[in-house]
Prior knowledge:
about 200 residues, mainly beta, 6-stranded antiparallel sheet, about 10% helix, homodimer, globular, 3 helices
Amino acid sequence: xxxxxxxxxxxxxxxxxxxxxxxxxxxxxxxxxxxxxxxxxxxxxxxxxxxxxxxxxxxxxxxxxxxxxxxxxxxxxxxxxxxxxxxxxxxxxxxxxxxxxxxxxxxxxxxxxxxxxxxxxxxxxxxxxxxxxxxxxxxxxxxxxxxxxxxxxxxxxxxxxxxxxxxxxxxxxxxxxxxxxxxxxxxxxxxxxxx
Amino acid sequence: xxxxxxxxxxxxxxxxxxxxxxxxxxxxxxxxxxxxxxxxxxxxxxxxxxxxxxxxxxxxxxxxxxxxxxxxxxxxxxxxxxxxxxxxxxxxxxxxxxxxxxxxxxxxxxxxxxxxxxxxxxxxxxxxxxxxxxxxxxxxxxxxxxxxxxxxxxxxxxxxxxxxxxxxxxxxxxxxxxxxxxxxxxxxxxxxxxx
Lengths: 195, 195
């Protein structure tokens, strides 16, 4: 059924914090993320002292159709577990053949991407950077700043869905760590060829 | 055919100007827009003296599939033709059943929306405002500032396409004009029930 009147949605995201005061964000703390880090024990120890927020993002409840656009902001806070930067879980889309645009509003970091065939790419986030994640690529945001949140605005096809399980099982092939002269991508020793 | 490696696209939009120095924007000057204003003669006179840029936006050449997201920035400059604010042409999507998200980066104004059945809505743009244009709604951005460009980041389904013709023929049912105490939406005397 087609209704003749559909109200537009209008909502504000604070450009300084990335937060929307009309919606409850989804939040991931250190304890939620510990198993994804190379040094899980260090993450568990840190969480036991202060289980701080690693990132938060919004699900705006857009209809799950290919005619709609799911959107929101994502805020990854600065910090490290050992030499590994704070990051999002990362995921494939359930409908693998769907892409996503991330637009960096503030902060700095990387988008790490990987497809099922093993191609790995990363792109730098700086304010104003638009990173287009191609169809079929899992993606993870990583904050490499010492002090500032990484704030992005994202948009993806309404019907894409999320597959978190594959990355939870296998991990990404690469990690992003603080090296002597800045962030470096290194092989993930915990990566599994098969989920 | 599925290729196993698709390069991610990464490109910067200057958050102050909205411009991307890697791409040629699409530009609309007063002369391109004259027929859309209530006082077309005033627009033609103004264009004859100085045919200034009214707005510009980007087409990032994303594949036209429902798995992809077309995106870019739109910059509407401040100004008026008589009491009518500078604005975009506005359009329906060719695939009518597709929506679009506009995220305001700076400036102020309105998103004017209208569906084929005649429902008309408008939503205010301020920095950080996300305005979701529902499926089936034509949409036009309007800059109501005296001095600042209205800069938005937009994203819509790759397969949506553009129908500019309907609005070019019929117009929108409402106009946005400078009233005694700010912007006002009034009936468009040039609106045609049939294209």
